[in-house]
Write a structure and sequence with these properties.
Blueprint: H1 22-25, H2 49-52, H3 61-71, H4 75-88, H5 93-106, H6 109-119, H7 126-149, H8 153-173, H9 178-255, H10 284-313
Length: about 325
């Protein structure tokens, strides 16, 4: 195990059971990751090809061809050879392991996982299955790291969890594999980080949703208040308009000419002449003038009677 000063993190291939050199094994890498403390995934120690693949060396020419292609740095050509070998040896865990490593080197993570899953199944030997689980963990880790960089924290969590489980399976089959121990610790750390990021993201989304709901409530409240104010203004305008119309009607009535109440109808013979005026009612002054006039007339008649009486009593002259 070793730590690098930079932020690049490399996955270690498991001990390989094919004729690959150690330098070829180190070609499997994951995308750059910068954890709080710079760390790198550990590379497992490759077994010597003569010891690992002595049992397979003479069994299949396609496997030998694939190994040669991998050694020359051509994982795509190696994959093609391993695919032919898989047709001839469909139940060979070692062939599927080689296929998975060639696909992993090309970055085809989905197909690499599929091939490595087959390498973990019986009747493959324990060493082959351990290597299959280890490299399966590496494949899950690489894809999870890519999703984490895209802020897809929920999916990244799931794949980091798959990587943790794969490394645990590798340790069950190979308890002394320190590379699997190191990679397991790093995958578990990344899983925790993604869980925290997802919680923070959920909290931010919830806060944003609450803000939107509060904005909607405030908008509805403002609309309600505006409608209420508009209604109050409308009612006040109607009331003012009604109050302004009522005095005008009174003034209009006052400006109109007064009309005498209708008189009872009379016969044509009893109709008053057009210019006839109603007889004035006698007042106290009129009555006083009448009395004075009557008194003067009485006085005049009294004087006349006296003159007549004196003329009758005057004696005739006796000449």
């Amino acid at each position: 195990m070793k730590r690098r000063a930079d932020s690049a993190v490399y996955l270690a291939p498991a001990p390989m059971f094919c004729q690959l050199s150690l330098a070829l094994c180190l070609a499997v890498a994951i995308a750059t990751y910068a954890p709080p403390v710079a760390a790198e995934l550990s590379f497992g120690n490759a077994e010597k090809p003569d010891e690992a693949w002595a049992w397979l060396r003479s069994e299949n020419d396609h496997v030998n061809e694939g190994n040669a292609q991998m050694a020359s740095g051509d994982p795509k050509g190696a994959q093609a050879a391993y695919e032919e070998a898989a047709k001839e040896l469909p139940s060979s865990g070692g062939v599927h392991l080689n296929r998975g490593l060639a696909l992993l080197a090309q970055g085809d993570l989905a197909n690499a996982r599929e091939a490595l899953q087959l390498a973990t199944q019986p009747p493959a030997r324990a060493g082959v299955r351990a290597a299959g689980y280890y490299n399966l963990g590496n494949a899950f880790y690489k894809e999870a790291d890519q999703l984490a960089g895209q802020q897809e924290h929920q999916q990244a969590q799931q794949l980091f969890r798959e990587a943790v489980d794969a490394y645990k399976q590798a340790l069950r089959l190979s308890p002394g594999d320190q590379s699997a121990v190191w990679n397991l610790e790093l995958a578990a750390r990344r899983l925790t980080e993604e869980q925290q990021k997802q919680e923070q993201k959920d909290k931010e989304n919830q806060d944003e949703q609450n803000q939107d709901e509060n904005k909607d409530k405030d908008k509805d409240q403002q609309q309600g208040d505006q409608q209420q104010n508009d209604q109050q203004k409308s009612d006040k305008q109607d009331s003012d308009k009604q109050d302004s119309q009522e005095p005008g009607q009174d003034e209009k009535k006052q400006d109109e000419p007064k009309q005498d109440p209708p008189k009872p109808e009379q016969d044509e013979g009893q109709k008053d002449p057009p210019d006839a005026q109603p007889a004035p009612q006698p007042s106290d002054v009129d009555r006083a003038l009448d009395a004075l006039q009557d008194g003067e007339e009485n006085l005049e008649r009294h004087r006349a009677r006296q003159r007549a009486a004196s003329q009758r009593r005057r004696p005739e002259k006796d000449w």
